[in-house]
TrEMBL record:
<dbReference type="GO" id="GO:0000463">
    <property type="term" value="P:maturation of LSU-rRNA from tricistronic rRNA transcript (SSU-rRNA, 5.8S rRNA, LSU-rRNA)"/>
</dbReference>
<dbReference type="InterPro" id="IPR051639">
    <property type="entry name" value="BCD1"/>
</dbReference>
<feature type="domain" description="HIT-type">
    <location>
        <begin position="1"/>
        <end position="35"/>
    </location>
</feature>
<keyword id="KW-0479">Metal-binding</keyword>
<comment type="similarity">
    <text>Belongs to the BCD1 family.</text>
</comment>
<comment type="function">
    <text>Required for box C/D snoRNAs accumulation involved in snoRNA processing, snoRNA transport to the nucleolus and ribosome biogenesis.</text>
</comment>
<comment type="subunit">
    <text>Interacts with FBL, SNU13, NOP58, NUFIP1, RUVBL1, RUVBL2 and TAF9. Interacts (via HIT-type zinc finger) with the RUVBL1/RUVBL2 complex in the presence of ADP.</text>
</comment>
<keyword id="KW-0863">Zinc-finger</keyword>
<keyword id="KW-0597">Phosphoprotein</keyword>
<dbReference type="GO" id="GO:0005634">
    <property type="term" value="C:nucleus"/>
</dbReference>
<keyword id="KW-0862">Zinc</keyword>
<dbReference type="Pfam" id="PF04438">
    <property type="entry name" value="zf-HIT"/>
</dbReference>
<dbReference type="InterPro" id="IPR057721">
    <property type="entry name" value="BCD1_alpha/beta"/>
</dbReference>
<dbReference type="GO" id="GO:0048254">
    <property type="term" value="P:snoRNA localization"/>
</dbReference>
<keyword id="KW-0690">Ribosome biogenesis</keyword>
<feature type="compositionally biased region" description="Low complexity">
    <location>
        <begin position="242"/>
        <end position="258"/>
    </location>
</feature>
<protein>
    <recommendedName>
        <fullName>Box C/D snoRNA protein 1</fullName>
    </recommendedName>
</protein>
Length: 266
């Protein structure tokens, strides 16, 4: 058992492949790793390892996607003129701020949970924002984040040793005990091939709006908070010797190609 290291393992988590000996250890490992225990149907499988079981799993996954899309299409309220006008307004306002905001079709998880709004009086966005801390396997969702707030202020309630919530501080201890100069904020560059994932490094001292300018956003921003001293597989654009630095907004493709990765959230 990889949780208690005392008893012989009887179960293996379909999600993270950790071995457990009992229901108690299963619950402990889910809590410690923020694991939901559900098999990742979209995990990458190389061609050499691809089997008939993987083919069957993909087939059933596509069937589930079809059922979800069909069910979403039946909700007429989701296609109301008022909702369409709201989405058009958000995309238009984002375009004026040099942000390429993409919205997904009805039925997608990110489309349902997105709470981003634009205040016409204040003339600024209030973003739905997701923070992911990979080294602690933790993620948090923020709603109504003003676009003029700096990333440093956004992260204070999470990694600041003084101002952060005690419970969150304990969970993100590896971040709170690290110097601020070691913290990097990354955002995935959209419209790239699955085997060529790259990230943009953001400036914590600048506002959320300034950091999002010139970027492609699908529904809402997702920020990855990492530590430079810890090894991770996130390649920052321009730091790979095999490719030159390039601007993220120069990469364009059809919306269908972007949805290829997002459809799996449905």
């Amino acid at each position: 058992c990889e949780t208690c290291s005392e008893e012989e393992a009887k179960y293996r988590c379909p999600r993270c492949m950790k071995y457990s000996c009992s229901l108690l250890c299963v619950k402990k490992h889910k809590l410690a790793l923020s694991c939901n225990g559900v098999r990742d149907k979209t995990a990458f499988v190389s061609v050499n390892e691809f089997t008939d079981l993987n083919l069957l799993s993909d087939y059933r996954f596509l069937e589930d996607v079809g059922r979800t899309a069909d069910a979403a299409a039946r909700h007429l309220t989701m296609h109301s003129p008022a909702r369409k006008n709201l989405l058009y307004c958000l995309r238009n306002k984002a375009r004026k701020c040099s942000i390429d905001l993409k919205t997904l079709p009805v039925g997608f998880t990110k489309r349902r949970e997105n709470s981003t709004t634009f205040n016409l009086t204040e003339k600024k966005f209030y973003w739905h924002l997701k923070l992911i801390f990979p080294h602690c396997r933790a993620e948090y969702t923020l709603k109504g984040v003003p676009d003029d707030k700096t990333l440093a202020d956004i992260l204070k309630p999470y990694i600041d040793p003084v101002e952060s919530d005690p419970v969150i501080c304990q969970r993100l201890r590896i971040y709170t005990t690290s110097p601020r100069s070691d913290v990097q904020i990354l955002m995935k560059i959209e419209n790239r091939k699955q085997n060529s994932v790259r990230y943009n490094e953001l400036d914590a001292s600048r506002s959320l709006l300034d950091n999002l300018k010139g970027k492609i956003i699908i529904e809402y921003p997702t920020l990855f908070v990492v530590l430079k001293t810890l090894k991770n597989d996130m390649v920052i654009l321009g730091q790979d010797a095999s490719e030159p630095a390039e601007s993220s907004d120069s990469e364009s493709s059809s919306l269908s190609s972007m949805e290829e990765g997002e459809i799996r959230d449905s």
